[in-house]
């Protein structure tokens, strides 16, 4: 079970990597758009410098045809590094790209997955990771937890080495359901990650502990006794 940050914001990546057990970073064109017209490859290299070489960095292609996506992948390898996971949408052209990149030994994440049919195709194409869109599936009336559970079952049954990297979350409860369904990892936007710790009952409990201790020892901490 691993948590990745679904963001290209440098400050958030630095802060969350310091506080939380973050396993890597994912991005896509829509996420990059939130940062404005940044110098893209320099920005990605800075993310790499924050998370280091051992944690995965996922960068998505922007072209929509096979040749263009392959050129995008080569550009990422050249300007960032060859350890990057290339995110490829699972459409007709994308499956061909996944096969080709895997033949080259590249790391590949199959993204924009809305159902088991796409996931099964990506498994056979050799994707390292499959990113089912949890909230987007739920918005379409799809039982996202069931989809992830069935994908996990197929992976276990046939012995695929692919990991489920669940994505598209709007609330912490969705993350819980994805993990319980069998997701190996989740990629989560910073605001949703912070939302895990925003429960009022937790804040109330911490305050109660603080008040009780202060009543005993006049506000001194353990280290000050």
TrEMBL record:
InterPro entries tied to this protein: Aldolase_TIM, TAL/FSA, Transaldolase_AS, TSA/FSA_arc/bac
Keywords from the UniProt entry: Schiff base, Transferase
UniProt cross-references to Pfam families, sorted A to Z: TAL_FSA
GO MF, one annotated term: transaldolase activity
EC number(s) stated in the UniProt entry for this protein: 2.2.1.2
Annotated GO biological process: carbohydrate metabolic process
Gene Ontology annotations for the cellular component aspect, listed alphabetically: cytoplasm
Alphabetical list of Gene3D superfamilies matching this protein: Aldolase class I (3.20.20.70)
Localization (cell): Cytoplasm
UniProt-listed NCBIfam families: PRK12656.1
Protein name as it appears in the record: Putative fructose-6-phosphate aldolase
Phylogenetic lineage: Bacteria, Bacillati, Bacillota, Negativicutes, Selenomonadales
Originating gene: tal
């Amino acid at each position: 079970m691993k948590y990745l940050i679904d963001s290209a914001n440098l400050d958030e990546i630095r802060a969350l990597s310091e506080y939380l057990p973050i396993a890597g970073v994912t991005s896509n064109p829509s996420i990059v758009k939130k940062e404005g017209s940044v110098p893209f490859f320099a920005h990605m290299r800075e993310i790499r410098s924050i998370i280091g070489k051992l944690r995965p960095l996922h960068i998505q292609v922007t072209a929509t045809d096979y040749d263009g996506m392959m050129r995008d992948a080569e550009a990422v390898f050249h300007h960032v590094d060859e350890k990057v996971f290339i995110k490829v949408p699972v459409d007709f052209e994308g499956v061909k790209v996944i096969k080709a990149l895997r033949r080259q030994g590249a790391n590949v994440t199959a993204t924009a997955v809305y159902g088991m049919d796409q996931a099964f195709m990506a498994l056979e194409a050799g994707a390292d990771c499959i990113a089912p869109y949890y909230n987007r599936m739920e918005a379409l009336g799809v039982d996202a937890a069931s989809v992830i559970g069935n994908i996990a079952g197929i992976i276990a049954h046939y012995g695929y080495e692919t990991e489920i990297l669940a994505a598209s979350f709007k609330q912490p409860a969705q993350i819980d359901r994805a993990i319980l369904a069998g997701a190996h990892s989740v990629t989560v936007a910073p605001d949703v990650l912070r939302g895990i710790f925003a429960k009022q009952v937790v804040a109330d409990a911490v305050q109660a502990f603080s008040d009780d201790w202060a009543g005993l020892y006049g506000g001194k901490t353990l280290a000050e006794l």
